Amino acid sequence: MTRPTIRYFKTSPEIIRLAVTYVRYPLSSRNVEDLLHERGIDVSHETVRFRGNRLGQVFAAEIRRSRVQAMRHFQHRRWHLDEVFVKINGVKHYLWRAVDHEGEILESFVTKRQDKKAALKFLRKSLRRHGLVETIVTDRLASYGAALKALGAIDKRETGRWLNNRAENSHQPLRRRERAMLRFRRIRSLQKFAALHDSIHNHFNQERTLISRQNCKDRRTAALAQWRQLGAA
After folding, report:
1. What are the two backbone dihedrals, phi and then psi, of residue 50, each rounded to the nearest 5 degrees?
2. 61-81 pLDDT, tens per residue?
């Protein structure tokens, strides 16, 4: 099955990119519809949701592909792993997340359990996509130790009281969006949205408190220019 591209849709590419980029804000589809209406764009909330599900994945895949290729050249890499529970139709599930030393969200993975099998599947998927890593920071969950031991990487594990704050803080943007969306209904929807949200959040995240105002403006301009080029073909 060929993946969808912008040229097969009647809507203007600029409007599609504008609708998809609102994913990084804690807004519902109806809020996005109102914001677009103020700009003179008449698009229903169902269209916003449909464009995000179809074309948002294409944008996220292109962003992820370019970032993975660039990050594979770094030698001294440090990952932070953490899991957070998410309720889907009243049933508790777990969203596993890998974050690098700069706060980039590498991988998100949804499972029904919090055991060794789930942790092992998550680690294998992350290592297969992003390559080897020198240090893996986790909490004291026993599943991490069992999975790393099975992979022969238990000596790379580090645990500490505040060492994993970077991974724990990475859940906050998704939590805010989860409340705006009144939670999720299916595992597949959560997995697709997490991948889309993480890629767009990485692309526009500028770490404003760590850089000067001018550098922040330059990076934001460059990120917006790259975003406008996505799906241009």
Report:
1. -65, -45
2. 888 888 887 776 666 588 999
Q: Which residue spans within 13-123 are E strands per DSSP?
A: 78-88, 91-100, 105-111
* Element of type H or E holding 86: strand 78-88
Q: How far is CA 95 from the centre of its chain?
A: 11
Q: For residue 36, what are its two tokens?
A: 């677009």
pTM above 0.85, yes or no: no
Judge whether 111 and 93 are in contact, CB under 8 Å.
yes
CA distance 71 to 94: 26
For the chain, list the domains and their CATH numbers: 1-73+189-208 (no CATH), 78-170 (3.30.420.10)
Are 200 and 63 a contacting pair, CB within 8 Å? yes
Picking from 139, 91, 133, 135, the residue whose alpha carbon sits closest to that of residue 111 is 91
Give dist(CA 105, CA 150) in Å, integer: 24
Tell me the pLDDT tens digit for each residue of 7-22.
555 666 777 778 788 8
